[in-house]
Amino acid sequence: MTTALLVGLAGMIGALLRFCADTVFAHIGRFAPGSPQHLPLATLLVNAVGSFIIGLAGGLAAHSGLSEEWHTAIATGLAGGLTTFSSFAVSTVGLWWEGRRIVAGLNVALNVLLGLGFAYLGLLLGS
């Protein structure tokens, strides 16, 4: 029961952080998620940060004694509430449908490369 509560609370924090990222980028205007001019940068940012958080939690759990309960709360709750694979998928398909195939491909490449890179960095720092 404690783990479920921690996951729920951490998920709420992750979702609020995601909302803040979307809000900040929407106010910037030209960088707003789904903007016809640019990549969905808020989604890219939260996916990279979420990958780092999951990697860091995994590294800490494996090497520094982070409990399974806290690892689950951080990885599933916080990072799960923050990251946005579904938004990434819809944004990418939208770019493709708009005929902006190079930007769609760039979005996929950046999300994958940054996600993997930040997950690795998190694991490395957590070890």
Biggest sheet features: none
Order of helices and strands: HHHHH
Q: Provide a count of the helices.
A: 5
How many domain units? 1
Distance between the termini: 28 Å
Question: How much helix, percentage-wise, in residues?
Answer: over 70%
Class inferred from helices and paired strands: mainly alpha
What spatial form do the alpha-carbon principal axes imply? globular
Low-confidence stretches: none
- What quaternary form is this? single chain
* Topology, number of strands: 0
Mean pLDDT across every amino acid position: 88
**What's the Cα radius of gyration?**
16 Å
Beta-strand content estimate: under 5%
Question: Can you walk me through this structure?
Answer:
Helix 1 runs antiparallel to helix 2 and helix 1 packs parallel to helix 3 (68-82). The chain has helices at residues 2-28, 41-63, 68-82, 85-97, 101-126. The chain is built from five helices and no strands. The model has no long low-confidence stretch (mean pLDDT 88). The chain has one domain (2-126). The chain is mainly alpha-helical and 127 residues long.
Quick rundown:
By secondary structure, the protein is an all-alpha fold. The chain is built from five helices and no strands.
What topology does this entry show?
Layout: H1 2-28, H2 41-63, H3 68-82, H4 85-97, H5 101-126
Helix pairs in contact: 1-2, 1-3, 2-3, 2-5, 4-5
